[in-house]
Design goal:
- This protein has one domain: Aminopeptidase.
- β3 and β4 form a beta hairpin.
- It has an 8-stranded mixed beta sheet, with helices on both faces.
- 28% of the residues lie in helices and 39% in strands.
- It has 4 helices and 8 strands.
- The radius of gyration is 15 Å and the shape is globular.
- By secondary structure, it is of the alpha+beta class.
C-alpha cells in the first residue's frame, strides 16, 4: 500500500510526498534517525523512553520527499493507536504529518477499526483537530511533556 499526495509547499513548487509501510528490520535506520532528531535531540526525551518493545510489533510508516529522502515517520499499534509521529524540522507545515496520519487512518479503517486514538502533545492538539480528532481525556505527562488523549470515530 502506498499513498501519494501533492502538497503545495510555501516558497516552492508543488511536490510529492510518498508514504509507505516500513519494515522495522530494513527501515530501522531511517525511523531511528527521524525519531532521534525530533524526540531525543529536539524534545530531550531519553532514548530508553523513545524506543520500546512496541516498535517490534507496530506497523511503521515512512514519508519520503520527491528526492527519495525519508522525512517523517509514525506507527500504528495493534490496538489502533497512532503514535511516534515525527517529521524532520525542515518539512513541518508542508503536509507530511497530515499524509502520515491519513495513511495510518486508512489502514486502520481497512482493518475494521471504528475508532483511532492517539496521545497528542498539547501544542499539537490544533493539528489533530484539523484532521477530525477530538480531545477525550485530561492532561497527563509523558516523558516530561504534557499530552492529552484524542480520538476519531469513523462512520
Amino acid at each position: 500500500m502506498k499513498a501519494q499526495t501533492k502538497e503545495n509547499r510555501p516558497g516552492g513548487p508543488a511536490g510529492e510526498i510518498e508514504v509507505r509501510i516500513a519494515d522495522w528490520s530494513d527501515d530501522k535506520p531511517d525511523i531511528r534517525r527521524i525519531r532521534t532528531l525530533v524526540f531525543i535531540e529536539e524534545q530531550k526525551i531519553p532514548e530508553d523512553e523513545e524506543f520500546d518493545d512496541a516498535d517490534k510489533t507496530a506497523v511503521h510508516v515512512l514519508a519520503y520527499n520527491d528526492l527519495g529522502e525519508a522525512i517523517g515517520t509514525a506507527r500504528l499499534l495493534g490496538s489502533k493507536k497512532i503514535g511516534r509521529v515525527a517529521v524532520v524540522k525542515s518539512w513541518r507545515g508542508k503536509g507530511v504529518g497530515k499524509a502520515l496520519i491519513g495513511f495510518l487512518m486508512q489502514m486502520a479503517r481497512e482493518n475494521g477499526a471504528h475508532t483511532v486514538e492517539l496521545d497528542a502533545q498539547v501544542y499539537a492538539i490544533p493539528f489533530y483537530e484539523r484532521l477530525g480528532y477530538r480531545v477525550t481525556g485530561g492532561e497527563f505527562m509523558d516523558a516530561g511533556i504534557p499530552h492529552r488523549k484524542m480520538s476519531i470515530e469513523f462512520s
